[in-house]
Amino acid sequence: MLRQVLVYADSLSWGIIPNTRARLPFTKRWPGVFEAYLNHSGKDVRVIENCLNGRRTVWSDPFKPGRDGSEGLAQVIEYNSPLSLVVLCLGTNDFQCTHDHRAWLSAQGTAKLVQIIRQAPIEPGMPIPEILIVAPPKIRTPQGPISHKFHGAEHRDHGLAAELQEVAKQLSTHFFDAETVTSASAVDGIHLDESQHETLGRALAQEAAKILK
User: Considering only CA atoms, which of 204, 137, 209, 131 is closest in space to residue 171?
Assistant: First the structure.
């Protein structure tokens, strides 16, 4: 049976190449690695990517429209259903210099997204998908063209993984801390290098395999 998995995320999952505006191909970014690994292991999985550069959990970007991750999420769930799993990997952009957020507040943004997913107006009889909250790698010292945008972010995001794990516990979702398998790129301190996409994709596929039994 085909299982559809939605990845709802930002530029870390979109596959931006650090310090460029270029994008890794699907087979090289982690959602593609994730899909290939699961299919090769005997799961019949289709990954649906909904990854937007600059997406926050529940806040707007003063310079770019559509970056509030809560806006339209219910409809994303509706038009991609039936879904077996939604992977939420957001939070990094909550710590851009346009916001003075700390880890607890960002995690509450993810909690709101979980509630939206579960209350989405899907068709009768379709399943409410399982949810896997992924804590993004901890922000390192921002480098290069994005350093001004993320000034001080490596301090504001302190403790995000622990706060997201607590949200996952309270809301009975699954949880994975990306920092346990890879750090952020040393090139820009925010995104992932190609080899890190490979590592994260395989690790998340192993987690998803347990969920999609």
Answer: 131
Q: Which helix (DSSP H) or strand (DSSP E) does residue 115 occupy?
A: helix 103-118
Band the pLDDT of 213: cuts 50, 70, 90.
confident
Mean pLDDT of 48-70: 98
Name the nearest CA neighbour of 83 among 122, 33, 135.
Answer: 122
Give residues with Cβ within 8 angstroms of 152, minimum separation 6: 97
Cβ-in-10-Å burial (0-12, 13-18, 19+) of 119 comes to exposed
Residue with tokens 């997204």: 113
CA distances from 79 to 14, 72, 82, 126, 151 (A): 20, 11, 8, 12, 37
d(CA 38, CA 7): 14
Query: What predicted TM-score, i.e. pTM, was given to this entire model?
Result: 0.98
Type of residue found at 49: E
CA–CA distance, 183 with 178 (Å, rounded to integer): 8
> What kind and span of H or E run contains 8?
strand 3-9
Give me the pLDDT at residue 209, please: 97
Q: Residue range 117-137: average pLDDT?
A: 98
- In order of start, what are the domains of the chain with their CATH numbers? 3-211 (3.40.50.1110)
